[in-house]
Amino acid sequence: MQPRPAFDQPVDTRKGPILYVEGVSVSFDGFKALNNLSLYINDGELRCIIGPNGAGKTTMMDVITGKTRPDQGQVYFGQTINLLALQEHEIARGGIGRKFQKPTVLETLSVYDNLELAMASNKGVWSCLLHTLNGEQRDRIAEVLHLIRLTAQARQQAGALSHGQKQWLEIGMLLMQNPRILLVDEPVAGMTGEETERTAELLTSLAGRHAVIVVEHDMAFVRSIARTVTVLHQGSVLAEGSMDKIQNDPKVIEVYLGE
Ligand SMILES: Nc1ncnc2c1ncn2[C@@H]1O[C@H](COP(=O)(O)OP(=O)(O)OP(=O)(O)O)[C@@H](O)[C@H]1O
């Protein structure tokens, strides 16, 4: 039940970065949603991406995950794996997981069954649920339940979870595939203050074992988790650095005050 590797070579991160986005441009009817965008993410780092509406954040994630093909540029997973040569499902199975804003958990199944299914996304639902798990697989589910703080809810129907818990379950489902990179889109939208705090703890605990790229509008949340922040504007990187550096950057202040 291990995820099928999409690549026949290991991800080469010996130079540091696990993701290279270089000179990427995407046009929609002549409008440049991404304009010569270059961005490097180190293995295991937690990176926050911010930017005003329409800055290109979603388009950037679409390019990394193979949903949108750029007109120009290169995207590499480690030094050798050309993501632009792969299909969306190959990229997902090969180690780049994406969490969309809206949770897609199976509401009538238990939390546990959702995680079990996520471990074997290429098998049928029933063959997976009828299959007996081995010890290693059970350990992995227990480990992920603990990480996402849903051990006590393991046998509950996913539909009965709070909004925040559903978001964590979805992150857990991605973790079952052991991704090297996790892309997380607005993880705390609609969450309570306490859920937001727990999400910050969860995402920071994942960094190190996974590279985590978080796109988020909530600046207080970004401040609470960010080491390095990248600001996108008009499809390019406007500024990059620590939260303090970003907040005092006149270009960034202008873009945000101009909104
Ligand atoms: N399929 C599309 N067809 C035409 N224009 C598009 C398409 N997708 C995105 N755009 C345009 O490209 C620009 C960048 O959009 P994108 O969704 O990447 O920005 P964003 O930074 O994610 O914004 P938001 O914070 O509002 O989600 C926007 O002006 C958007 O209208």
UniProtKB/TrEMBL annotation:
<keyword id="KW-0813">Transport</keyword>
<dbReference type="InterPro" id="IPR017781">
    <property type="entry name" value="ABC_transptr_urea_ATP-bd_UrtD"/>
</dbReference>
<dbReference type="Pfam" id="PF00005">
    <property type="entry name" value="ABC_tran"/>
</dbReference>
<dbReference type="GO" id="GO:0005524">
    <property type="term" value="F:ATP binding"/>
</dbReference>
<dbReference type="InterPro" id="IPR003439">
    <property type="entry name" value="ABC_transporter-like_ATP-bd"/>
</dbReference>
<keyword id="KW-0067">ATP-binding</keyword>
<dbReference type="InterPro" id="IPR003593">
    <property type="entry name" value="AAA+_ATPase"/>
</dbReference>
<feature type="domain" description="ABC transporter">
    <location>
        <begin position="19"/>
        <end position="259"/>
    </location>
</feature>
<protein>
    <submittedName>
        <fullName>Urea ABC transporter ATP-binding protein</fullName>
    </submittedName>
</protein>
<dbReference type="InterPro" id="IPR027417">
    <property type="entry name" value="P-loop_NTPase"/>
</dbReference>
<dbReference type="InterPro" id="IPR032823">
    <property type="entry name" value="BCA_ABC_TP_C"/>
</dbReference>
<dbReference type="Pfam" id="PF12399">
    <property type="entry name" value="BCA_ABC_TP_C"/>
</dbReference>
<dbReference type="InterPro" id="IPR051120">
    <property type="entry name" value="ABC_AA/LPS_Transport"/>
</dbReference>
<keyword id="KW-0547">Nucleotide-binding</keyword>
